[in-house]
Amino acid sequence: MSTAQSNAVKVIALSAASIALLSACGEPKATPMDDEYAGNSGESVQSQENKSKTDGKAADNTAGGDATTKNHADDANSTTSSKQDTGNYADGDYSINGQYGPVGEDTIDVQLTVKDQNVTAVNIVGHPFTSISKKHQNDFAKAVPDAVVGKPLKDLKVDKLAGASWTSEAFNKALEVARQEASIQ
């Protein structure tokens, strides 16, 4: 094998290894704000004091005797909650943290109010890592109320809003968690 062929094989092997290692990068995540792994900035931690609420009462994560905590940060597709989406939602305020970016460096806190199965209010607090992320988060936060307020929570999803594709994906993951948290039988 010539030196050129040997170098080509090394480049291909390194490229394949890099792709395998980076394959989950940039995947958005979302967790309920009362989850111990929600957020990664001091601001997010402070905002977690306003935990998910249902009918004015804080959600109890130990309902049913299950106090097991899953590390959502290890799951690139994490949209988990201890509940299943039933398609029937309780009125209340729900707070979810969405995380995204090549290495999960950007986060958004999503506060959602649900009444009569519809979203009646939404507020986004961004925690950007860069000035570019800050612009996208601010533009998204301004555009999202027009896209979701007054719409049914069931199957609600936004497309790329205000040029913020990753922020939109993280928001959609947060909506999935909100549906799980708000679900009633």
Automatic annotation (TrEMBL):
InterPro entries, A to Z: FMN-bd
Composition bias type Low complexity, residue spans: 59-68
Highest taxon of source: Bacteria
GO terms assigned for molecular function: FMN binding
GO cellular component: membrane
Biased composition (Polar residues): 76-87
Signal listed as a keyword: yes
Record domain FMN-binding: where: 104-182
Region (Disordered): 27-95
Keyword annotations from UniProtKB, A to Z: Signal
Pfam families per the UniProt record, alphabetical: FMN_bind
Residues in the signal sequence: 1-26
Protein name: FMN-binding domain-containing protein
Organism: Bifidobacterium adolescentis (strain ATCC 15703 / DSM 20083 / NCTC 11814 / E194a)
